[in-house]
Amino acid sequence: MAGIPNVITDVERIFSKFPGIGRKSARRIAFYLLDKKREDILEIAKAIVDLKDKIEHCTICNHITEQSPCDICANSKRDDSVICIVEDSLDVIALEKSVSYRGKYHVLGGLISPLDGVGPDDLAINSLLSRLDPVKEIIFAINPSVEGDTTSFYLTRLLKDKPIKITRLARGIPIGGDLEYTDEATLARAIEGRIEIPNE
Ligand SMILES: [Zn+2]
Questions:
Q1: Which of 14, 98, 143, 144 is in Cβ range 3.0-4.6 Å of 188 for a Cys bridge?
Q2: In the predicted structure, residue 11 carries a pLDDT above the cut 90
Q3: Range 6-54 has CATH code 1.20.1250.20
Q4: DSSP-derived pairing of the beta strands 137-140 and 79-86
Q5: Average model confidence (pLDDT) across the chain
């Protein structure tokens, strides 16, 4: 674009791909960074690189952590017999805010979505199956959507014939709404009032 150095449009292009950031905000960020001191920019860059270098996935539940197993899996006070299945780590963080849940989690790392080329093999399903031994209840805390329902249905079929009670969060969470945008009281009620899914 005329009058704008390429270096700035490059930064704009990168930031405009961020969730919730449009072209205008991306330009504002680029100009904000332009005014920063070099050491501040290096600090920002390092923090972003650290995200990649220091965060790994828990070998048990697949939640993000700086050390595997994660705090939740390593906590012996948490109930091993209940696993709450979620799409991603943001959902774990949201459900942890509600305090009422004392079981463990399993992070799928996505949802089955044939249109996007995401199948069951792309999700952390084998690691879920390998930790079912002490489990008496599995809670689906998966956002209601076509992909969410497909994934819940697939997992319910997979868990068929296992002596495990399967439940889902009570509705109250808006359809298509994300757990991460649901307030703590609503989440706590959704966990308390969870509904059994017949598993036959
Ligand atoms: Zn874990």
A1: 98
A2: yes
A3: no
A4: parallel
A5: 91
